[in-house]
């Protein structure tokens, strides 16, 4: 596993430079948006560019209207009637200007709606594409990565990012649009009174810095609290899901869960509230600096107009421009610091994508031999789970012969499942190596290896899919091959379970969705075992997926399994010795090491741990 270190220890505040450094993430982000749909991206940018130029035009036409009205306004006492004014053509110019303003207003509205439409389409596509990329990348990661708490936090943040970042897209485009509008207003102001712009910047800078600061604090808070937020989600899920409802009721856990939720949530809320309060306070102080700037400018403009330097139209245009510029700059600056804040979150997404799996296929990988001739040889294999002090297995040496049925026996925690995971390369050994037909397992193509080694785990997944699909997951390419699925079901005794369901093979299973039917533990297991038959791999491994079967079923299932997988290499894990004794050889594990290996008769004769455990169980049945 190679998880890049988190950008920094979570609790230290970020420097301004670092905050803006996160803006580098915008490039890959914009590229991702562009790749989602070049057409829609271009469309929204063009529409926004057009719309950006309208405000200054409208304000300028407004100024012309006022100047025209002032010009036309009669001295008090002379009354015009409309018809005369109309027919004489005096109002023509005014009408033209009002008509123009009206047209601009309509166009602006239409453009605004089009932008919203295009943005919403683009952002939906973006979220879809980002989610798919997330799933694709997650699928390449090592199992070890998933068990790492730091990575789980990062994955959680990345998952949130894919949903939240579509707003960032609209915001960035909105920023670009506002920037164009600002430039157009600034050109207008520059022509009349360049010093106004300088005043504007001085008034706005403090507000901007304040915004940037609080955004970074907000991010730090969210970052530091990721583990707690994950716990909150977990408690909420446990407290309100079908999977746990039964136990929550029986053990009356609701008060415990609610209390735990409340404590955590309140701490998070308090921290958030403090920050939001400070932000609101400083925000209003700094914003009044901006307002002060505006009124200073307004007073000065009014005075210049009284003095005759500007017309009334100029005054409205300048004051309007100044006000709009101020609003725009304010939102641009705060938007910019928000973008910088959001770009910090993108760190999580992109650092998640940077995690490279270690278990992967080499460039010069070998194809898996077909058939496997010699089998697997464990050479002094040791493995320790990440972060664990104890070796889960160590010094493993044995030969799993091609074509044999091997049973793994041992007490809880002896290392049986770990051994199977190593065989399927869900983990690589930390010590020693595993050979397949004389070559290191790591030399082979990983996809082919996984295709050749089919494992049904004790904690197999109960998919909320149809019965047929639940079997088809064993070989998903065969999901439309109903005949093969039914054959596999017959072999594992799942067929009779499925036939009793109201919708047979098309019956949705599980309780999560409407129409779902749940099965008993043993019935689920029969379905899971059908996956192994459908997979039809060279090596078939059943890791105790039969624990919930009744004694007769387990006996029958294993007897069939042995017959049907005749000639294949099979590994069985079971705590029932009636099953275990059917295997050709039995491997007894204790504390992560092999202590006995031989046939049932040999091991009984040796009178070791196997004989002891066997007799213990046989005792119980007498
Ligand atoms: N994901 C994991 N992370 C850390 N330690 C683990 C993990 N899985 C198993 N272990 C530890 O590794 C050791 C071997 O576990 P393993 O699951 O291989 O035992 P097992 O023989 O299959 O047990 P059981 O009969 O209970 O299924 C145990 O001490 C267990 O606590």
Automatic annotation (TrEMBL):
Cellular location(s): Cell membrane
Pfam families: ABC_tran
Keyword Hydrolase (UniProt): no
Domain ABC transmembrane type-1, first and last residues per copy: 42-341
Segments forming domain ABC transporter: 376-616
One Gene Ontology CC term in the entry: plasma membrane
Gene Ontology MF annotations: ABC-type oligopeptide transporter activity; ATP binding; ATP hydrolysis activity
UniProt xrefs under SMART domains: AAA
Membrane topology (UniProt): Multi-pass membrane protein
Gene3D superfamilies reported in the protein's UniProt record: ABC transporter type 1, transmembrane domain (1.20.1560.10), P-loop containing nucleotide triphosphate hydrolases (3.40.50.300)
Keywords: ATP-binding, Cell membrane, Membrane, Nucleotide-binding, Transmembrane, Transmembrane helix, Transport
SUPFAM superfamilies in UniProt: ABC transporter transmembrane region, P-loop containing nucleoside triphosphate hydrolases
Residue ranges of the TM segments: 179-205, 280-303
Keyword Protein transport tagged: no
PANTHER family associated with the record: ATP-BINDING CASSETTE SUB-FAMILY B MEMBER 10, MITOCHONDRIAL, ATP-DEPENDENT PERMEASE MDL1, MITOCHONDRIAL
Listed name of the protein: ATP-binding cassette subfamily B protein
